[in-house]
Give the backbone structure.
Amino acid sequence: MDMKTISFSVNGKPQKVHVRTNWTLSSVLREQLGLLGTKIGCGEGECGACSVLMNGKTVTSCLVLAVQADGAEIITIEGLENMDGTLHPVQEAFVEAGAVQCGYCTPGMVMSTIALLEKHPEPTEEEVREGLTGNLCRCTGYQKIFEAVQIASKKMRRG
Amino acid sequence: MEQFKSIGTKQNFVDALDKVTGKAQYLDDMAFPGALVGKILRSPHPHAKVISIDTSEAENLPGVEAVITAKDCPKIKFGMEIPDVDMLAVDKVRYVGDEVAAVAAVTDEIAREALKLIKVEYEVLPVVDDPIKAMEPGAPLVHDDKPGNIAKEYHIKRGNVEEDFAACDYVFEKEFSTHRVSGLYLEPFGAVAHWESNGRLTVWTGMQAAFQARNEIAKALGIRPSMVTVKCPFIGGAFGAKIWIRNFHPIAAILAKKTGKPVKILLTREEEQLTTRPRVAPKMKVKLGMMKDGTMVSKQMTIIGDNGPYSWAAPKVLLNLSMRTDCLYRYKSTKCDSYLVYTNLIPTSGFRGYGNSQSHFAVESFIDECCREIGLDPVEVRIKNAVQKGDVTLHRWKIKSCGLQDCIRIAGEKIRENRLPAEEQNGRIKRGIGVACMTHVSGNRGGEKYDGSAATVSMLEDGGLLIFSGESDMGQGAKTVFAQIASEKLSIPIDMITVMPLDTDICPFCVGTYSSRVTTLGGKAVLLACEELLSRILDLAAKMTSRQRDTLYVENGLVKCSRDPSILLTIKDVATKAIRTNAGVPLIANVTYEPPTEGADENFYGDYSSAYTYGAHGVEVEVDTVTGKVKVLRVIAVHDVGKVVNEFGLQGQITGGVAQGIGWCLYEDMLFKNGVPVSTGLHGYTYMTIKDMPPVEGIAIETNDPMGPYGAKGVGEPTLIPTAPAIANAIQDACGVRIRDLPITPEKMFWALNGKKTN
């Protein structure tokens, strides 16, 4: 298998990684860069647990080849906390709403919520359903996730 | 009324921060230096003889360190009640996914490559894919030593149903069935096995029942349980399918033994869907005898459960299927004949409800149908017949707390409020409401007839508290409940408490997270351990202050004296004194709690659960009578939980259970054609996404159970149980169609609606 060197930005830090052309973005994030917050639920792009932001848009990183991320800006769950350890408003909202149960879908769900609120700062119920439909959560029944999105929306608009 | 500081609040999960930041370590996030990747070669056939296996090419692939087949494994059949499992195929494969051989290699890619190089010669055998046909004389046998393909049967009789049916005003009979669905926990199951230099085996794996896993792994390997340690990392959901070990657990251990290195086996989603433990799929014939006034007199069921080829917990699931709904109403007599049948489809086991969900679908659907038939209000009939506190049921369950009538009444009232119009678009859209109720357990003194729990609490010199329990938190919030109970009892803030990771060498013996037992029994053990610890704190505080012991109490992290307000010690002062002086006392308490229950006898009589739980769901649905599509509009979920411990945890259990209930009823299905699964991984498996989720109003009824900690009972499984029959009942209310076979697909609806029109 061919090898290639890719340069990209991960959580604001420039990275240069030597990858095989069949490696996925999720495997590079987890195995080469040690960013284990991105979870793998299915490896087939169905469950959304591995969602990260690539150039501001959510992608299922288990389906993106690492070479496709060459030159891209990637944000993972590890990139959300501020330097002083305070959480991103979406993370705070998930905790406050009690929207975290087993936690395995949570990083992906948080990333998708950030992308959703970027597009729709005050999302309607339908927009929330549309924006998070690619993220499977098996524990919560989604109700508290709806609440978390609304709390996060308010927090972010307050700035 | 006792005022609580922690119990009953909306408490953020104690591990919410770890999870929301992605720092929580699940199995795949842990590092094991030098670990090899284990992969399993699985059968492509539902039923075949294994003629030969040639592993030589795989063994010669660079990077492969071990290849094993049955000849490398102990000749021990394992499994829970019926030992019918081989670690790797000995003579036959019995379902698509059955384990044939395994490899350990330095990378995942090499391990996958090696699997392709193993040559297996099969002789394909006739497939047994229908439990009814499997019981017929001359049917092919899944196990040669199991005649008639029967794995287990029960015959349970209370009173005389024949006599009582003869005296009933109405006797109805119909057949219901449910199907296989996947637990579909988001974190794939897996294990890392490593033999320590002292000869002991450590297995890291996210189990619901860690101690039982330890014992089963030991059984499969033919070693003493005390030679095995099970350590649980964070668990990404389980729902019953991670209670018991799978073949990969001992397989990882054999590979690790052979290579002398840690071996990690992590299932892919495709393997998960092939080999996870879905619900037992039963066909259930129900006969119900009623009087004109709505009195339910007798119930008879005949159940044929599809076990798959290996039986794990399915015999227990069948027992629940056969008994539990008998204790929902005050029947005069009941009878059940049930059979668990081997087939060549994926092995079944317990999934949220453990058989009780399946039988409730049949019974709660049928009662509704019968009431409509004779013109009675199904809600009123349920309330009239519901068991009540103080009852001793037909199986001798002693009902010490019961909010069933309230649950049914509230669900019935609330779902009638704020309804949408019954019809729209000239009658194309029809809407209706339905109610169904349930009973379940909080613990089950089955198996080895022990249903106790234990906890160790240890206070450190700064007043911080460590809790050790052998009951798992699989994401439902057990750690948080334990911390809340300790916080309440010891009057220390929750952030001073750590619930320790589960390690079978360190934590006290517990039977595990199933039967909705952890809050009720694990929580009680924590409460009693904290009581003992508090007693030691107050003994020492009495010495330190020279005050009478019985005048001392704790409040807000302080030790106070009821007779002398000037006496103020912090708990930390006492803890420091206890630990950092020669006259110190150990601030550690280890309590084993066994509830005053009784194991069922040979005729299945016995008050086997610490507390029985109740609930009712009201559902409003919308049916598109042209396409047959059903949409759930809203759900009222009322549950008798004894006492709310964590409002967040409770509501999460309710909405999560309802979501899985809707998914089971309308969308999810593991389909097979001639024994071969028709979908791979999640492709083609429809599950509940946020798009389909209706609003759920969760309502708690507090009946303050006399045994549970602070009156609490279990709620994990109950929340799923009434959803499916409530939906089926609402569908009949909307459009007159009754579907008795899950899932209720648009296709079934379409044909039923069209059949109805032509009639």
Helices of chain A lie at 25-32, 89-97, 106-119, 125-131, 143-158.
